[in-house]
């Protein structure tokens, strides 16, 4: 485990512009994936774009897919007619 591969809760809090307590709450709620190292939590640097919302995670992709499917099912004919213009 390389220290450059992980960020501390303080570093993540600074990157997100929130408090360390808010970072701990996100970890507890499962919104932020972290690894426990002794008494500290470490967040993988590779996960930071997902946390910052720069990249969509699998959960977000699934929600978008559900919304698109629902819209097509409800308004498919309308979309088809609008596409003809």
Features:
elongated; 58% helix; 85 residues; 3-stranded antiparallel β-sheet; 3 strands
Report on this structure.
Strands 1-3-2 form a three-stranded antiparallel beta sheet. Helix 1 crosses helix 2 (20-29). The protein starts with 5 loop residues before the first strand and ends with a helix. The protein has helices at 9-16, 20-29, 48-51, 58-84, and strands at residues 6-8, 35-37, 40-44. The chain has four helices and three strands; from the N terminus they run βααββαα. Helix content is 58%, strand content 13%. The longest helix has 27 residues, at 58-84. The model has no long low-confidence stretch (mean pLDDT 87). The chain has two domains: 1-54, Multidrug-efflux Transporter Regulator, Chain: A, Domain 2; 56-85. With 85 residues, the chain is an alpha+beta fold.
